[in-house]
Amino acid sequence: MKKDDFTELDRYISEKQKIINQKLDEYTPLNSYTKLTESIRYSLLLGGKRLRPVLTIAVAEILNTPIENVLPSACAIEMIHAQSLIHDDLPGMDDDELRRGKPTNHIVYGEALAIIAGDALFSHAFNTIVSKTPKNVKPELILKVIEEISTSAGFLGMCGGQAMDISFEKSNDEVTKEILEYIHTHKTADIITVSVKTGAILSNANEKELDALTKYAENIGLAFQIMDDVMDITKTEEEMGKKTNKDLDKNKATYPRLYGVEKSCRIAEEKINTAIKEISFFGEKAKYLEALAKYVIFRDKWY
Amino acid sequence: MKKDDFTELDRYISEKQKIINQKLDEYTPLNSYTKLTESIRYSLLLGGKRLRPVLTIAVAEILNTPIENVLPSACAIEMIHAQSLIHDDLPGMDDDELRRGKPTNHIVYGEALAIIAGDALFSHAFNTIVSKTPKNVKPELILKVIEEISTSAGFLGMCGGQAMDISFEKSNDEVTKEILEYIHTHKTADIITVSVKTGAILSNANEKELDALTKYAENIGLAFQIMDDVMDITKTEEEMGKKTNKDLDKNKATYPRLYGVEKSCRIAEEKINTAIKEISFFGEKAKYLEALAKYVIFRDKWY
Fold first, then answer.
1. B137 assigned to some structural domain
2. Which among A116, A142, A148, A158 is the top mutation candidate for probing chain B, defined by the most B β-carbons within 10 Å of its own β-carbon?
3. Distance between terminal CA atoms of chain B?
4. Is A303 within a domain?
């Protein structure tokens, strides 16, 4: 696979980022009673490529749905992503002090507030979907989206993947393909997949579209985590905006640990090829989803 | 106020507890991939009076709604309550080792899993509402319930109260009436209030009913927290199933700190009287809600 010219995609991403950042800001106003909303906004508005909500919007555009209809749910997914990062960084979890080039939430606001900030974001995500989705969107579709997102974030999804990640790290076990796939699918790919599905559900996608888009997302989600593992080895802390070279120290279950860097990159590339094939029937309309898929393996910086 | 004979109420509570415990068990099946669901079930099924879901059910019964319609939401509120206890007990928060007479979640499963278990419970609560509420309940009502619960649990509700509680504890400030009311209203009363409102919303209550039930709940919610503060001083660890006499050590903002034990009890009693007056127009039908209100101040043990 050749590295594309990402100029047009960069323009597309930055246009969507601007809208997403505005909405995240609007949906999560500062409340001066305590430092809680300040702490939430610190992590939520700290930046990041906004891959997940960009995917939701891109799918809505392909399916001719006004992006206003998906923005609250897209932002809700970003809130859950932000919550997972705040809690992942806690001393009781990965104990990281740097995220996106800045001190992590608990370093700035203390551990207690960081725990509460994550909890509040979880609640706020679902609140945002219900209170901010335009009234013309069918209630049944909103309920379906809440069901999908809460499954993907819960103990069978993201939280399940995190639990396996942590319990493997603490074990003396050798990493296996099964463990690795469980962790990557649930810890990372599930939320990326539901970002795409949310756009499809709120657009009333037909079965063929939903199925293809889901497979697209599952593949880029896995490729994303594989490349994240690879970059933990090949990139510097400065390039990544977070501590690197920590997975090996910590006995993390990663693709490079099982397959080495080169084969891991090849697996990621195969997954991206599969993803692109899945959505080829959309033709020209899918160009940004295709470019986003390629970006996953050629990105230098995603934070 | 005289201490009633609570025999009939005890029978009522234990009948409802049985149903609630069955449903919590059914909604949260064990999944053997990791210890995560075991850890969730440990805290969720550890017991407790189930005050919040009992209130939801009692309201549904007064308003002639089949309890099947409210059970998923009632259990969701109990899940959020359980999540708040797991995270409250963490070393980074209140650092408690005992809850309901048993070791706290992080003592048994470790800090990382306790953090993830709480997060997963948040997601699972909303998932349970959507996936388990019977199909004959109007989607608009389910969305309204999700909106109310997520507001009550979020940064303007429970999490906001917890944040103020923690930040006051770390300050050298003198406790004021305003701070105390903010903490108690949001940390505790909001979730108790939404338990009652959920029963009313899913029963399509009219404005008068909803308003009266909300005021009833706000008052018993505050009285509940006042009595919790009082019992931290007057009861032993054995009686309470958790460490007592810790609020004074920790510079917690409590009613006894501001008013002393006796006046605090009087304030709680006034609130219970107000609560009972608010729902008096329901007549005989409200007898369990009345008894529950009195129970709040005469209970010896709520865990």
1. yes
2. A116
3. 24
4. no
Decide if B119 and A123 are in contact by the 8 Å CB cutoff.
no
Per DSSP, the residues of B74-139 read HHHHHHHHHHHHHHHTSTTTT--SEETTEE-HHHHH-HHHHHHHHHHHHHHHHHHHHHHS-TTS-H
User: Cβ contacts (< 8 Å) between A134 and chain B: which residues?
Assistant: none
pTM of the model as a whole = 0.95
pLDDT digits (tens, 9 = 90+) for A161-208: 999 999 888 887 888 999 999 999 999 999 999 999 999 999 999 999
CATH number for position B154: 1.10.600.10
Residue at B67 is within a domain? yes
A119 vs B142, B159, B170: nearest CB: B159
pLDDT digits (tens, 9 = 90+) for A207-243: 999 999 999 999 999 999 999 899 888 877 777 677 7
Q: Taking CB atoms and an 8 Å limit, are B123 and A159 in contact across chains? A: yes
* 8 Å CB contact of B131 and A123: no
With respect to residue B45, please indicate whether it lies within any of the assigned structural domains: yes
CB contact under 8 A, B90 and A92: yes
| Number of domains chain B is built from | 1
Domain that includes residue A240, residue range? 7-298
Distance CA A5, CA A22 (A): 28
Measure the N-to-C terminal CA separation of chain A; round to a whole number of Å: 23
Question: Which chain A residues are within 8 Å of B93, Cβ to Cβ?
Answer: 111-112, 115-116
The interface pTM score, or ipTM, of the predicted complex is 0.94
